[in-house]
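quick one before i forget lol
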Amino acid sequence: MMWLARISVTLKPVVNDPQGLAIQGGLRQLGFGAVRSVRAGKLLEVVLDVAGREEAARQVEEMCRRLLANPVIEDFSFELEERSEPASAPASG
């Protein structure tokens, strides 16, 4: 069974976010004065071929803890979606 994991990794609220501050400043310069704060992060999509939702969740959790997020400064969350077929692989070159 194929699963698509959408993983969100963000800095913890107590960690300074210079990229977010730069984005906020740029948005304000473009006239978006209502923007009060911006936090930057990353979104990853991982396709897994495992038997069930529990196993997919277990593996994604472990991936995040071991490689995808730095537990000292980042938080992560993820959603799982069942896929009927694998996502196409990116072309190499």
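fyi The mean pLDDT is 93.
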